[in-house]
Write a structure and sequence with these properties.
CATH architecture of the largest domain: Orthogonal Bundle
Order of helices and strands: HEEHHEHEHEHHHHHHHHHHHHHHHHH
Largest sheet: 5 strands, parallel
Number of helices: 22
Distance between the termini: 64 Å
Number of domains: 3
Bound molecules: flavin-adenine dinucleotide, iron/sulfur cluster
Oligomer: single chain
CATH superfamily of the largest domain: DNA Cyclobutane Dipyrimidine Photolyase, subunit A, domain 3
Structural class: mainly alpha
Strand content: under 5%
Shape: globular
Length: 520
């Protein structure tokens, strides 16, 4: 119910870069006659880690586009551009400036997605002397309370069980008896096909650059070209209309094969059958529920097989929501964890792609060129290498946060620290996602063009992943012996002779020396 007070109050409604949804709670009762909607581009946010130029351009362009659409609906928008003469460079300064000029009675925001920004917003009531209302973000499908309730009393939080409950709650791929469509909750056993040679993928959409996009690209080029990442391959949708076209294009042309090749890796092919939708979902141009419902609809109409629809829906309804739940359930302590005491400095090649290891060079080049790499590259190539080499968890997280267009701390941190680095000690994953070069060889064709040999472990041409893999298991042996799911791989280590174990350790030392000297 709208109170008399609400009717006379002038409200400033602040939106963040990842809140570009018309259905946002902060906009639900906007009064076109009195209220002002505010968006701001600030240097502090664009540079607290060196964000990829395409990521900055994507978010600034999407914000400007969203502001334009709000104005077209007759709403008043206060938009602070990065190069406005008086831009203070940080959120607090910009909100203070807006309060001084617009003189609102109160500030309304939808809960920021990151702990860091929430803390800042919570401080404004006192520091800026204005009543601040923080509304829940109902674009996510599990509220904080839902997740806490689900987590309560469980010894371990596992995505699979969370996901089943979410399927039931939203009645997605549920049959008439209340069970999973097709009889199984998860069809992953059908989803592990490798790809060994190039196939003809359907073309991706090309987005024409509007004047608005060109202006932002030129701004980003002039201010952020020193950041890692190329700008010239920019091809993001920046409006909801175009993001919906991306979603429909994915569902029609790529989703049918999404399940089959979800774990595959192929040279010169950054996207395979992946959706490329994460950046749009994370900034609010697409909503998770509409995305899942469209995939379900495509299955029900017989356009995509069940393993594909289920696999895709699991990523969004399951993994994405679970990861967010973990973040808020465990913050702020989560960000301080480093359970394997990983402290080796991030090697230079993460910022240059200059390494003889073909898989890493390829994944980092995709990242540089598109502000994107697919999940298996993030997890089993760059992440796996960082895990095995014991790279510093903070430096690795900052890298992931900087280089991907979809990276916001709530989703990047549990994926990197938890899933890839096992730095949370098993909160996200029940065992480390550690793999030798043989896995990378099996799932794709990178090894064919590499100077190293995935079949060798201690020889001159041996793939570095192999010795690092065994050395990693050996370094954390006492801890890993307690993890039941690692019993099989630990028995592999046990079968080596003392001489072989010593040779692996020696090889690993040699790799670490080359890593530290940036010659790997
Ligand atoms: C080390 C590491 C860091 C990551 N950092 C991020 C990040 O900063 N931002 C981000 O959105 N995702 C992150 N992910 C998850 C995942 O890799 C990306 O969501 C995915 O690669 C995005 O590409 P896509 O849209 O083509 O995904 P698809 O493979 O097509 O998957 C469909 C959708 O499912 C969701 N999804 C899939 N897996 C996950 C997951 N593990 N966590 C959350 N959502 C998921 C995404 O919204 C994605 O768009 C990370 C994964 C790892 C291993
Ligand atoms: S041989 Fe090893 S380093 Fe080379 S591409 Fe294969 S897995 Fe990567």
């Amino acid at each position: 119910m709208v109170s008399f007070q609400d009717c006379v109050m002038k409200t400033l409604r602040l939106l963040f870069a990842d809140q570009l949804s018309p259905s946002l709670t902060a906009l639900s009762d906007v009064d076109a006659a009195k209220d002002v909607i505010m968006l701001c581009e600030v240097m502090e946010e664009a540079s607290y880690v060196p964000h990829h130029p395409q990521k900055i351009a994507f978010l600034f362009a999407a914000m400007r586009q969203f502001a334009q659409e709000l104005r077209e609906q007759g709403l008043t928008v206060h938009y602070c551009k990065l190069d406005d003469q008086h831009n203070t460079g940080h959120f607090t300064g910009e909100v203070a400036r807006a309060i001084a000029t617009l003189k609102p009675d109160r500030l309304i925001v939808t809960e920021p997605s990151e702990y860091r920004v929430l803390t800042l917003v919570q401080s404004w009531h006192t520091s800026l002397h204005i009543p601040v209302t923080i509304r829940p973000d109902d674009r996510f499908l599990a509220s904080h309370e839902d997740f806490s309730q689900w987590a309560q009393g469980r010894k371990q939080l596992r995505m699979e069980f969370f996901y089943r409950d979410m399927r039931k709650k939203y009645k997605i791929l549920i049959d008439e008896a209340g069970g999973p469509t097709g009889g199984e909750w998860n069809y992953d056993k059908e989803n592990r096909k490798p790809l060994k040679k190039a196939i003809n993928f359907p073309p991706r959409l090309i987005h024409t650059k509007t004047a608005l996009v060109e202006e932002v690209l030129s701004l980003v080029h002039s201010r952020f070209s020193h950041h890692f990442g190329r700008l010239d391959e920019f091809n993001f949708a920046v409006s909801r209309e175009d993001a919906l076209k991306e979603l429909d294009h994915f569902i029609s042309h790529f989703l049918p094969f999404f399940g089959d090749y979800q774990d595959a890796m192929l040279r010169d092919e950054p996207y395979l059958y992946h959706s490329r939708l994460s950046a749009y979902l994370n900034c609010g141009l697409l909503l998770p529920l509409e995305t899942c419902l469209k995939a379900q609809d495509a299955f029900q109409k017989g356009h995509v097989p069940l393993n594909a629809a289920e696999g895709f829906i699991r990523q969004i309804l399951g993994w994405r929501e679970f990861i967010r739940g973990i973040y808020w359930h465990h913050m702020p302590k989560y960000g301080t964890l480093n359970s394997l005491t990983a402290t080796r400095p991030l090697p230079d090649f993460f910022w240059s792609a200059q390494t003889d290891m073909a898989c890493l060079s390829e994944a980092i080049r995709h990242t540089r060129d598109y502000a994107y790499s697919h999940h298996i590259q993030r997890l089993m190539v760059t992440g796996n290498f960082a895990l095995l080499a014991g790279l510093d968890v903070k430096q690795v997280q900052d890298w992931y946060l900087a280089v991907y267009a979809d990276a916001f701390e709530w989703v990047e941190m549990p994926n990197t620290l938890g899933m890839a680095l096992f730095g949370d000690g098993g909160i996200v994953a029940s065992k480390p996602y550690a793999a030798s070069g043989k896995y990378i060889h099996r799932m794709g064709n990178y090894c064919g063009s590499c100077s190293y040999d995935p079949e060798l472990t201690i020889e001159d041409k041996a793939c570095p992943f192999n010795a690092l893999y065994w050395d990693f298991l050996q370094r954390h042996e006492s801890r890993f012996r307690k993890i039941q799911r690692l019993a099989y791989v630990m028995s592999g280590w046990d079968r080596f002779t003392p001489e072989k174990k010593a040779a692996i350790e020696k090889k690993a030392k040699e790799i670490f020396a080359r890593l530290d000297a940036n010659t790997l």
